[in-house]
Design brief:
The complex is a heterodimer of chains A (about 90) and B (about 425). With about 90 residues, chain A is an alpha+beta fold. Chain A contains two helices and five strands. A five-stranded mixed sheet of chain A has the order 2-1-5-3-4, covered by helices on one side. In chain A, β3 and β4 form a beta hairpin. The longest helix of chain A has 11 residues. Chain B is an alpha/beta fold and about 425 residues long. In chain B, the strands form three sheets. A six-stranded mixed sheet of chain B has the order 4-5-13-10-11-12, sandwiched between helices. Chain B starts with 8 loop residues before the first strand and ends in an 11-residue tail after the last helix. In chain B, α10 links the parallel β10 and β11. Chain B is built from 16 helices and 13 strands. The longest helix of chain B has 16 residues. The mean pLDDT of chain B is about 95. The chains are: A alpha+beta (about 90), B alpha/beta (about 425). At the A-B interface, β3 and β5 of A face α5, α7 and α8 of B.
Chain lengths: ~90, ~425
């Protein structure tokens, strides 16, 4: 099962400039693992040494922050879109 | 090429890992997504930026320009800042405070009546140095107003993105400048996310996305001015409203830098944070003793300017409050309205909803003993009440209407007494 993942600008060097990449997995954690196999080093940019999504990264499943869902255990299905977005300042 | 006026701004540096980056339109570390922050050569600044030198300069935020992250002379927002620090003895009495109380009144900042004029002056001056022609922002209103106005003043193309349900004053206050105003259905956090993606795709200068390291530093000038206006010292307590938490961390940075440069004695005083109860993730984490901020999915408060559910600087704001011995509070909507009224009736300052949060939370901090009654306090008022009149329209009521005759005035108005309307 393949899911589209939107890659933010700071990580596109690792995806050879690609803005959207495909990865396989039944949940967000598996997608990140699949992504790291394709683009080595990507996972450690998104997750800290304990495996948690870094403090300054937001990961969205469609329009919902995975922190409001089941974090990396959040299930994904065909057609879903994952976005990785750096946290930004107020306004 | 002649030497640039500001050789002191050296690089952008990751707050997490300390890696240095060139001074471009980048805002996060490629390795850990940590925010990039401007770095300075303080040793070189120290002999140059003396009290006397600062006092000799024009009364704007640019009198501290060595500590602001642009290379050349500023070109946007030249009149911004140096807003009044107003003694507030009548409010102090109402809050039960015997120490000195001051209002840092950015409700009269130039040109758009909020502290955001400071951050935009820096961000757009830098945007022009970087050759950007289109500027933009994600905003809860005040930032949109300031980006639109300042872009218009120098002919930059401008897009502002806001939640579509903002107060009318803030919407009109962006449209009037000819900016493209895009209302996004959803909370501010959705706007933020969209802007982050647009910035990546089109390379525009988003003041609070890819220009954030420059933008955020503008907030420090609030702290520099407070110290200078207090006679070169930091207050014992500073109360600051929090949306992303950025302003609070930058006021702390300002006090710390002034101490490092010998402009004030060491010590920053206690720094306290204020949020709305309907969107108070930083205050909640602080009260629970946690360092991690649990995002608020659906903010529910009249304080739209602070309604950021995923506060980017929440973690650092908590660290500042803990390090300085500060506290956090949250205010309900009725407390916010009462706070706006109390400030207005005792100081003559009409603050927007965020100011009501600051006053209401200060009241709680004094009542709880977090702020001892005999110590000095500065409340940071960040925006103007005329932009959020909806919030207090019901509370203030209507004028007393009469015909134009003296008889009606005598019989209908004076007959009710000569006290303030609120006491009638």
């Amino acid at each position: 099962m393949s899911t589209s993942i939107r890659i933010p600008t700071p990580l596109r060097k690792l995806t050879h400039g690609a803005e959207i990449v495909q990865a396989d997995g039944a949940n967000v954690g598996e997608l990140l693992t699949s992504l790291d196999a394709k683009f080595p080093g990507l996972r450690e940019r998104i997750c800290d040494e304990t495996g948690q999504v870094r403090r300054f990264v937001n990961v969205y499943l469609n329009d919902e922050d995975i922190r409001f869902l089941s974090e990396q255990a959040t299930a994904v299905k065909t057609g879903d879109e994952i976005s990785i977005v750096p946290a930004i300042a107020g306004g | 090429m002649s030497p640039r006026p500001n050789p002191y701004f050296t690089s952008l540096r990751c707050r997490e890992c300390g890696r240095d980056y060139p001074k471009e339109a980048v805002h996060v570390c490629e390795y850990d997504f940590g925010p990039l922050e401007a770095a300075y050569d303080y040793e070189a600044i120290r002999p140059v930026l003396t009290r006397g030198e600062i006092e000799s300069r024009p009364r704007t935020m640019w009198r501290y320009r060595e500590l602001l992250p642009i290379d050349d002379e500023p070109t946007v927002g030249l009149q911004t800042g140096f807003t009044p620090l107003v003694p507030a003895p009548r409010l102090a009495r109402r809050l039960g405070l015997t120490g000195d109380l001051f209002i840092k009144n950015d409700a009269v900042n130039y040109p758009t009546l909020s502290f955001k004029d400071r951050v935009v002056a820096v961000a757009l001056s830098r945007a022009r140095e970087l050759g950007l022609e289109t500027v933009a922002c994600a905003s809860t209103g005040n930032l949109a107003n300031s980006v639109a106005a300042n872009a218009a003043s120098v002919g930059l193309k401008c897009f502002v993105f806001i939640p579509q349900d903002l107060e009318r004053g803030k919407v009109v206050g962006s449209l009037i400048f000819g900016a493209r105003v895009v209302g996004v259905r959803g909370p501010y956090d959705s706007v933020n996310r969209l802007c982050s993606e647009i910035a990546g795709k089109y390379g525009w200068g988003f003041v609070n996305v890819n220009l954030r390291p420059y933008y955020a530093e503008g907030s420090k000038t609030v702290g520099y001015e407070i110290c200078e206006q207090l006679g070169w010292r930091a207050p014992q307590h500073t109360v600051i409203c929090m949306a992303s938490g950025s302003l609070l961390t930058k006021v702390h940075k300002a006090y710390t830098e002034f101490a490092k440069l010998g402009l004030i004695a060491p010590g920053t005083g206690r720094i306290h944070g204020a949020q709305a109860a309907g969107c108070g993730p930083i205050s909640e984490a602080m009260k629970l003793g946690r360092e991690t901020v649990k995002p608020v999915a659906k903010p529910n408060t009249i304080v739209k300017s602070l309604a950021i559910g995923t506060p980017a600087d929440g973690y650092y704001a908590i660290r500042v409050m803990k390090e300085t011995g500060g506290s956090a509070e949250a205010a309900t909507d009725p407390e916010v309205i009462a706070g706006i009224e109390l400030l207005a009736e005792t100081t003559g300052i009409f603050a927007e909803t965020a100011g009501g949060v600051t006053v209401a939370c200060a009241k709680k901090l004094i009542a709880s003993g977090a702020i001892p009654r005999d110590e000095s306090v500065v409340l940071c008022i960040t925006g103007n009440g005329l932009k959020t009149v909806e919030a207090v329209t019901d509370a203030v009521g209507e004028p007393e209407v009469i015909g134009g005759s003296l008889r009606e005035f005598d019989e209908q108005i004076l007959a009710r007494g000569t006290g303030a309307a609120a006491t009638v």
